[in-house]
Amino acid sequence: MDSSAKKVLYIDLNSKSYEVKGETELAEYVGGVGIGLKIFSNFKERDPIIISVGPLNGFFPYASKTSIILSDEGVIEDIYIGGTLGSRIRFSGLDAIVLMGRSSDKVVLDITNENASFKENEIDLGTLGLPGMRSILAEDSNGKMLIDRYFTSPERFLEKKLNEKNVHAMTITGSKTFDLKNKQKYEEIYRNLLSRTDEMYVKQFGNPSCSGCPMGCEMSKTGELGGNVLIHCLVACTYAEGIYSDIGVIFSCLNVLGYDYTHEDLEKLPKLINGLLKDIEE
Amino acid sequence: MTKILKAKFPEKCIGCELCILEMQRQINKIGFEGSVIRVLKKPRMNTDGADGLEYSIVLDPQINKFDIKKIKEICPTQVFTIEDQENGLIG
């Protein structure tokens, strides 16, 4: 995996166009809330929504959320939602999807890997993307935005902002695969993490679970708002904080995937994020 | 006798997709493309409307060329069983 750049899909809703860029300046922010805030600071005049994942999403258990950064009446909100969205973005090959501007008419965004298309509002969402490899973000009959027709976000910041932008729904399909370079070591770390369910802050339950998480917990449906910066740069579940707040664990995971982040890179993240927040507020 | 994997208790599935990821790891891959297991979901309906998700698991017969014991064991809700198949009939 490449630590030197993050791949970002920029969608301009005004012109209904898009482009993918490899952004080297995002690399030091690692992922999730880190790259989300940096992109927000770069494009804040275009009122962006930044949907992003971290380097462990799709690869390791409990790294199963998706970070969303947006401005709600001038206040920056960081939201974390579950379901399959994070793994679909990971397997699309992207680190972030950015929605900028506003569409003149209601649209449905259909994203497959690094390509986006703009569909009419009335389209049957079931006809878009690839079943089993897609995630659907759409409102239910009560106007609540749902991922995979089940998972929600706290408050209604996301629904409000998507409505302002005239985005009716989104589908995201990820059909890329990654080769394992060091299968034995990867398997060892993966199995170890998977066996640590007793260190989760939630109990195993029979509810719909996020992709890559064995918990099926009672909290999976509702998503998260704010919290630990390091966890949210990885976009791990906040209830896995007992596992993913250990820098040694994170470093092992990153290392086996081929990322060349150092301990120092991870340790300086909180300071970097605080600096970004100050810049945005000025 | 041949051992075959069956998704005998799909109603227990929580959609974690660990089975797919396990199968893909066995061929040195991470991702969903090319998987011989598909986990599909639809809203679970009751009289008040949707109250959850209902999953269906589609197994390509090629799954039985994999280490199916590992796939069975990684499922946190015991959706899968391994059964004997003799002369094309499930025993």
Q: Explain this structure to me?
A:
The complex is a heterodimer of chains A (282) and B (91). Chain A has 282 residues and is an alpha+beta fold. Chain A has one domain: Aldehyde Ferredoxin Oxidoreductase,  A, domain 1, CATH 3.60.9. Chain A is 27% helix and 25% strand. In chain A, the strands form two sheets. A seven-stranded mixed β-sheet of chain A has the order 2-1-6-3-4-5-13, sandwiched between helices. Chain A has a five-stranded mixed β-sheet with strand order 8-7-11-9-10. In chain A, helix 4 runs antiparallel to helix 7. The longest helix of chain A is centred in the C-terminal third of the chain and has 13 residues, at 269-281. Chain B has one domain (2-79). Helix content of chain B is 16%, strand content 43%. A three-stranded antiparallel β-sheet of chain B has the order 1-5-6. Chain B has a two-stranded antiparallel sheet with strand order 3-4. In chain B, strand 3 (37-46) and strand 4 (49-59) form a beta hairpin. The model of chain B has no long low-confidence stretch (mean pLDDT 91). Classes of the chains: A alpha+beta (282), B alpha+beta (91). The A-B interface holds A 58-59, 61, 84, 87, 91, 131-133, 140-141, 148-150, 174-180, 183, 186-187, 190, 194, 204, 206-216 and B 12, 14-18, 21, 24-25, 28-35, 38-43, 49-50, 52-53, 74, 76-77.
Short characterization:
The complex is a heterodimer of chains A (282) and B (91). Chain A has 282 residues and is an alpha+beta fold.
Task: Give the secondary structure arrangement, pairings included.
The complex is a heterodimer of chains A (282) and B (91).
Chain A lengths: L5 E7 L4 E7 L8 H12 L5 E4 L13 E7 L2 E7 L3 H6 L5 E5 L6 E6 L2 E6 L13 E6 L5 E3 L9 H8 L2 E7 L3 E3 L3 H12 L29 E2 L3 H6 L6 H4 L2 H11 L5 H5 L1 H13 L1
Parallel strand pairs in A: 1-6, 7-11
Antiparallel strand pairs in A: 1-2, 3-4, 3-6, 4-5, 5-13, 7-8, 9-10, 9-11
Helix pairs in contact in A: 1-9, 4-7
Chain B lengths: L1 E6 L10 H8 L3 E3 L5 E10 L2 E11 L8 H7 L5 E7 L2 E2 L1
Antiparallel strand pairs in B: 1-5, 3-4, 5-6
Helix pairs in contact in B: 1-2
